[in-house]
Amino acid sequence: MRDVYVIGAHTIKFGKYLDKSIKDLAAYTVTSCLKDANLDKKDIQALWFANSGWGYSHGQDCIRAQVALRPMGIDAIPMTNVENACAGGSTAFHHAWLGVAGGLYDITMAVGAEKLYSTNKMKVFAGFLGGLDIENIANIIANISFYGMTEQDKKEMLAHIQKYAAFAVKDKNKKKKKITTKDRLIEYWDMFKVYIRLSDAVGSKTVMKMRKLSSGDHSPFMDVYGFAARQHMKKYGSTIEQLAVIASKNHFHSSLNPNAQYNFLVTPEQVLADRMVTWPLTRAMCAPIGDGAASAILCDGETVKRLGLVSQAVKVRASVLGSGRERSFDDIDIGERLSRIAYEKSGLGPKDVHFCEVHDATAYGELHQAEALGFCREGEGGILAESGATKIGGKIPINVSGGLESRGHPIGASGLAQIHELVTQLRGRAGDRQIKGAKIGLAENGGGALGQEEAAMCIHILEAPSK
What we know:
Elements: E1 4-11, H1 22-36, E2 46-50, H2 54-58, H3 64-69, E3 79-82, H4 88-101, E4 107-114, H5 121-127, H6 137-142, H7 151-164, H8 181-202, H9 204-209, H10 220-236, H11 240-254, H12 268-273, E5 276-278, E6 281-282, E7 292-300, H13 301-307, E8 314-323, H14 334-346, E9 355-357, H15 363-372, H16 381-386, H17 403-406, H18 411-426, E10 440-450, E11 453-463
Parallel strand pairs: 2-3, 2-4, 9-10
Antiparallel strand pairs: 1-7, 1-8, 4-7, 5-6, 8-11, 10-11
Helix pairs in contact: 4-18, 5-8, 11-15
């Protein structure tokens, strides 16, 4: 296997792009990534393209890379379409790495592009169901009570809401939108369209029951995260206040990141007072939906020298892709299992990592991954965050980009946005959020849910350019 380097990386600012297409977003990041590597599009020998929702949202079920990139003049070369739920971008990166490491190509590219915003909100949340075993959805619905709250959980949630009500931020200038009859009709029509589509796939009776999975305005994954957080709190004594520290910290980090979807500060008290999504997770602890695109260009060592890019070439010390397995909640999880492989391949350990980007679809996700990746002992993820160790300037800064919670989470682009943050930090070009002396960075990105853990996950370990 050859050594592989990242010589180009880019992400657009994540957010709402209702007037732009996947083709537009892909073109923005590909053009800038090529510029970062000082390459022409004709230099790319093979490309992997990550996207999850283009088929469901606009019917582009197949040949997504070819459709998205031909308008900008990228064609003829091998293109592989990647779908691995939220781990799609990092999976594309893994295969681009594999193409170079295995000697098949000298220069490869990974691109991720996603549009989640839609005027039909019901369609957006229904689309998340594709990250589950859709043919087994009836059994999942039947067992949903397993993730439900106990009476004690409900009491604790109500007590919490009352305790922090005084900290809730109210915008006095914001006028409550009046819901018209036309608005209601549009909403019902949107619901009907989603109902018809899902009925064709799983049957009308099942669809009626599926409201339990996507009630309100959150995906079923939030309920799973909420359950896991409650179990952690009961077993180890972690607290909702610790989760609020994590969320507030990530909002601070994203305030320093011009590419982040959210650039505003939120205090821990405001996080705690925000609308409850599922106990103990408030809205500020959960990743928003958004649109975005990110990319990376990889090559071998000889090509780095030939191009004169040694000073900006970030070495890939490890690239690991794995799938979830059937296990109990108490057994070793996918993050810990794959990180051990990544550490072994890189010849490094948790203590050698200077910073990391983890898949924090919720604040609890960050807490859990801090433990799984070995940055603290099991049960002490909340304590680690509370100590300030995971903030810029701390012992092990986590999600300096703002993470999914605050940088944003456009599914197919998220993993490559993590790579962009690692590359930017390791090159020493992160500006106000730069981590001093950063030499080793790690990215963990999971996707989908089967049983007790993510269906897919990638872990990458990168090293700063040699001076």
